[in-house]
Structure formats: C-alpha cells, structure tokens
Write a structure and sequence with these properties.
Blueprint lengths: L5 H4 L14 H31 L7 H37 L14 H6 L7 H15 L1
Helix pairs in contact: 2-3
Length: about 140
C-alpha cells in the first residue's frame, strides 16, 4: 500500500565499496524516504476526512445506508492502519537520531540496506524476524 509508493520516488541506495554502514549519506537517504512516506500518509488521512465530510449523505434506502456505512468502516480501518504506520515512522526517525537505526533490536547485527529500503521501519534482521514469525505460528495453533 503506502510502502509501494516508496519505489516510485526513490532510487535504491548503492553503497560504495568499503563504505561504512549507516553513514550520514545512508541515514539521510532513509530519513528522506521516511519523511516522504509520512507526508503521503498524512495527505491520505486529510483527504479521507474531507471526503467523508463532503459525502455525509443520509440515504432513505436501508441497503444504500448499509453500503455507505460499510465503506466508511473500511476506510476508517485503513486510516487507522496508516495512523499506526505514522507512529512507527516517528519511532524510526527517533532511532535514526539516537544512532540505533539499521541494527537489529534482538541480536544487534546489521539489518541491511535492501531490507530497510523494502521496509524502512524494520527493527529486526531477517533471521530474527523469521524466528519471530515461526514462534507466532506455533503459538497461534
């Protein structure tokens, strides 16, 4: 959804040979990605609010009313997901400021530039994330 928009605006970062991981150029690249994503999400939320205010129609037909309420509920659920993503973006920007960005929360290894470009709010390396998902599957059964 919103993260699909990332690849339309940014060219992938190509590290130079011997370049230090999470140097100032890389951090600036990810800060720009996160900032743009946050702006797009906030604009979507704003558009939704205005659209819902403009389309506040009371239908006499119960089926039309039910359809409208279903549409509104779906839209609100999507906006709630986007609101949560904005919160994660803000937390991630804080990690950039504190110098923790790009390193796994569990094991401390580098998450990797390609993984971060695919999911800029990632806090776990691919191995730790895979283990976490396996545990979630086992608990869900």
């Amino acid at each position: 959804m919103a993260e699909d928009l990332l690849h339309k605006h940014f060219t992938p970062y190509v590290p130079k040979k011997g370049e230090e991981y999470m140097n100032s150029k890389q951090l600036a690249h990810f800060r720009a990605i996160l900032g743009t994503l946050k702006q797009e999400l906030m604009a979507d939320i704003e558009r939704t609010v205005h659209t819902m205010q403009d389309e506040a129609t009371v239908f006499a037909d119960p089926n039309d009313r039910a359809s409208q309420e279903t549409d509104i509920a779906l839209e609100l659920r999507n906006r709630d997901r986007e609101r949560k993503l904005i919160k994660k973006i803000d937390e991630t920007l804080g990690r950039i400021d504190s110098g923790d960005y790009g390193f796994c929360d569990k094991c401390g290894v580098e998450i990797g530039i390609k993984r971060l470009e695919a999911r800029p709010t990632a806090t776990l390396c691919i191995d730790c994330k895979t283990l976490e998902e396996l545990r979630e599957k086992q608990v869900a059964k």
